[in-house]
Amino acid sequence: MIVEVCVDSLESAIIAKKAGADQVELVSESSIGGLTPSLGMTELVLKNGIKTMVMVRPRAAGFNYSDYDKEVMLADVKLFKEIGAQGVVFGSLNADSTIDYEFTKRIVEAAGDMEIVFHRAFEVVKDKVSAAKELKKCGVTRILTKGGNSLIDGADIIREILKENDRPEIISGGIRPNTVELAKDLGLKYVHVSSSRNFTDTSTSGTGIYFGRENSPIDEIYTIADLEYLTNIIKMIKSK
What letters, b where the CB count within 10 A reaches 16 and e where it falls short, cover 6-30? Predict the structure, then answer.
């Protein structure tokens, strides 16, 4: 299986590579599911020889984007393409939680020969099998999905999608030591993992000053990928 690790810093990307990852999904703000990372960070990750799928998500909350958001997303895709990123990760929904196929086509067109991953916005779509086939028609390469909130709960849905011939590849999230064998049983080609350790930034910790919401841990805590955990789980995934 091809292992992708979600990371939100250059240091974490390098750790993922050391742990044996085949590629990374590069984001910022992983604590809220990931937003678009900076161009500078993306360029440095690429310079370290790491295959990089770049998140294109301009804001938090859901995935029903304004025309302004869409303009930014298309511009980001073009810039990431120019610096050599191998793929982009995005998702766009209508207000009723159906997929915005027209905008999906615009992203695919802007990306050219880059790989296109439709992310976990897919989880809220009701008819996932039909949606997967439509995404294939749009030119989407892979769909990142657990089939719902967890791979254990969503495994049957993933099996149904995998029965279809005319669909994107599935890259499954929710990979933990207790779900590795399930991922293998499903016959997945791609899996998506993440793991991080918390670190305290002592420059602000305990000062009583806050820079966002009062008493929010993000003013004091940041995360870096966990080399030991990633090394062990990637070995589990890659073992016969």
Answer: bbbbbebbbbbbebbbbbbbbbbeb
